[in-house]
Amino acid sequence: MTKLFIKRTVLLFASIFSYTAAVYGDINIYVSVNTDADCNGSYEKPFGAIVQAKDFIRKLKADGQFNSPVHILLADGIYNMNETIVFDENDSGTEENPISYEAQSNAKPILSGGKVITGFKKSDNGIWQVYIPEANEGKWYFEQLFINGKRAVRARHPNKFYHYITQKISDSENNTRFIADHKDSVLINKINRKHLNDVTAVFYHSWTISRNRIDSIDENNDVFILTGPAGRRFLEAPYQRYHFENFIEALDECGEWFLSRNGMLYYKPFKNEDMNSAQVIAPVIGRFIELKGNAQEQKFVEHINFKNISFQYGQYILPPEGQKDTQAAASIIDAAVMADYAKAISFENCEIAHIGTTAIWFKYGCSDCSINKCYIHDFGASGLCIGGDDLSLPITSHIEADNNIIRSGGQIHFGAVGIKIGHSSDNKITHNDISDMRYTGISVGWKWDYGKSPAERNKIEYNHIHHIGQGVLSDMGGIYTLGESPGTTICNNVIHDIYSYDMYGRGGWGIYTDQASSAMLIENNLIYNTKTGSYSLHYGSDLIVRNNIFAFAMDGQLQRVPAGIWNRAIQGRIWFENNIIYWQNGDLYYGDNWNNWNDENVLSFNNVYWNTSGQNIEFDDSLNLAQIQKFGRENNSIKTDPCFIDAEHFDFNLKPNSPAIKLGFKPFDYTKSGIYGDSQWTVLANDFNYPKVEFAPEPPAGNTLTINEDFESVPLDSIPDNSKADVEKSGDSIAVTDLYAARGKNSLKITDALGLKFTENPKFYYQTYFTEGTSIVSFDLRLEQNAEIEHLWRDALKYQTGPKLKIKNNSLIVNGRNLLSLPTQQWIHFEITAMQGKHANGKWTMEVTLPNGDKHFFDALKTKASGWNRTTQIEFSSMAARHAEFYLDNIKITNSSND
Q: What are phi and psi of 828, to 5 degrees?
């Protein structure tokens, strides 16, 4: 390295650069916040901004003087940014002469997209306020505020947990308006209507959220109309959660703030905060760096390195139509660092913090880029995104993320992930510490069914993923996968403290192989302290789940979605071998659907099972290990203590005499997972207080649904507004007809078809939330030729089924037993009764009245799941898988208290 002194003009001293590089080596260009107007990039007169140094390098290239590696050296200080720095192919280095933007020795430069706010005055009510002229003039509006380096809470209602939508609007409007409980709308009805559009309604779906602005309110009916649609229909399960943000009437708790369009900023400080000395910062820009190659001319922006630089305070503004999301915050299309058609770009020992979007995104056409030893924290969406979702654009590949701390993300967009790999292959995600996300740690793949996917040969190894979910969302995991991923490895990761919500959707697993996850190796992972299991298989093919330790899940250790839901559930072998499953309370399998392990394509053997409570271990169909082995399953598996050194305190090393080792389990050193390096770096990973997860209370219980539907007032070719129908529109249908009726003129016709994707479609159902009392469901049924029907009461939150009957070949079947022959083309009346909650006893009754008036009563029928005690859906499905029809009429659903 050598200092370069530039005294007059670039042209005059271009020869000095050339000579210096040739004789001494690299070129140094200096940047400092403390500089003069006649700056020239020398040590004595540094440039005042990175963009000046960037433009200077372009001039060197134009003059033929770019022939050595270049270092742009940033001095200590805060570099305030008002616009994005854009690097294109003309700003590239080369393999021999890379360009590095980095801190000077011992310096800590901060590129800030924020602006300091001063001048707060205390009002009589204890709230501090300050006038911001730019906000009043419409020149500056912000939706994030940071006090002394910590994200403040935008005034919200309720302050903790949720409001609930309990009443459904017609499907055509079911994601653009909703009905609020009157008591929850009282406060917001006080808002001046001209400010209503600034109020944000945050809706919690199962695995994602929507953020929407309010357009208007029908106060008489408590109907809220949104400016744009939410990401999903409301009330896909009972009790849709939501909360309101950003109105001054909600500013009632310490740490909350509100910015009015008139320019007044309000903040209610904590007792230990002194607003006279506090550092208050609000963001001005959202994107710090844009790396933008030329895809059309196939020219990369390349060979640029960023070292020891901090990027802080980035903006996110909710669009006028709101922000809807399908999964993994994929709808957030911005990032603090955005790269397209970039190659050989690296970030080393950098920090990205206090932003509203994703931190880094290598989106389309990127390759051979890396993020190493970076501290990414307090970000609004995801930490790192690799690849996009448009297959028509160049695919990103060969990105490395190693030895990073990625923490406290999804602060605005709760469905975001620590690291997301979309359509992208050959990436290495290793030795990262990922924590404090509300959805998922690492997500791999972006295809929801079988078929070739670009997500191949991804290496997810030696990561420490923990404290994920926080009881906020569901259907999530420490590591989550989708689609065919040949060559992908998920190995030597430590995953723990994964907690889902599970009252609107379900699932917080250690590793979750979701739809069509295939051709992956899952080996040598340690997973413990999860909500719904260490491992979940939706459906997939050619999966090897081997030599893992699965321990201490709350609600079942392992889970698999019913294969029957998908006609193409498993297309190849799945091996589940040499694993240790170790738990304290509850069942081995969760719900009533794990018995799909008897599928001949699923090979489970050489596993160690141990319940420390001494409770009997039940496998499929309530069989014990010896019984199930008689059917050729779980060969060589054993039920015994594997002899961990101290599992109670999470020391999962095995004693030398472990029976698991004798069986073939190969001990692995799980302490190698996570970050590595100097003590200052490793201490940082542990320097965070993770509060104990606080699960929301159950939604208000009670009689949430009463149905008395004769279909007489429902328009033909439609369904009742308070019902739901799953149809594929491939010859199947559900609609009111006047062709037949048990009484009156109308009934509901359900038509099945050949070749549907889901065997349970078409499905007609009502959503309820019966948690106590006695429930009664009655209906009239007309069977046509070839009809096959399944009627059941489901607890969709726990994947458990209560009363369930089948009709096949005109025979009424319960629990595999033929109870009664049924006539076709005549009306049959059913009445089913079961108790919920604490009175549930695993039994139900049924009375069937035939067309001739004969009554048949069936008592003490067993529920499908012995532990079932709650109903969230009452379903009628056609299971014929060919053209078939049946009709329903006079559906009545009631629930009454037993107290």
A: -120, 135
Between CA 57 and CA 51 the distance in angstroms is: 10
Q: What are phi and psi of 739, to 5 degrees?
A: -70, -45
Write the CB contacts of 357 (distance below 8 Å, at least 6 apart in sequence): 286, 287, 314, 316, 332, 334, 335, 336, 379, 380, 381
Q: Average pLDDT by consecutive 10-residue portion of the chain (899 residues)?
A: 32 34 72 92 96 97 95 98 98 98 98 98 96 97 98 98 85 83 91 93 97 95 94 87 97 98 98 96 98 95 99 98 96 97 99 99 99 99 97 97 99 99 98 99 96 97 99 98 98 99 93 96 99 93 97 93 52 89 90 60 93 90 88 94 98 98 99 98 96 92 78 96 92 98 98 92 93 96 97 88 97 96 98 96 97 97 89 96 97 88
Handedness of CA 185, 188, 189, 193 (dihedral sign): negative
Strands (E), 349-404: 351-353, 358-362, 367-372, 375-377, 384-386, 396-402
Nearest to 309 by CA among 65, 128, 50: 50
CA nearest 164: which of 191, 199, 204, 198? 204
Structure tokens at 282: 């609000």
Ranges of beta strands (E only) in 104-228 are 109-112, 114-117, 121-122, 128-131, 146-147, 150-151, 153-154, 156-157, 163-165, 177-179, 200-204, 209-218, 223-226
| Tens digit of each residue's pLDDT (9 = 90 or more) over 607-616 | 999 999 988 8
Domain coordinates in residue numbering, the chain: 115-281, 438-690, 707-896
CA angle 113, 118, 121 (to 5 degrees): 145
pLDDT value at residue 202:
98
Instruction: Provide the pairing of β-strand 763-770 with 574-577.
Output: unpaired
Top CATH class, 707-896:
mainly beta
Q: Which distant-in-sequence residues (6+ apart) come within 8 Å of 614 by Cβ?
A: none
Residue 17, judged by CB atoms within 10 A of its CB (0-12, 13-18, 19+), counts as buried
Contacts of 229 (CB under 8 A, 6+ apart): 175, 176, 212, 322, 324
Q: What is the pLDDT of residue 596?
A: 58
Greatest C-alpha distance within the chain: 108
Position 590 scores a pLDDT of: 78
Contact 549, 517 (CB under 8 A): no
CA distance readout (Å), 129 to 222, 282, 829:
32, 14, 67
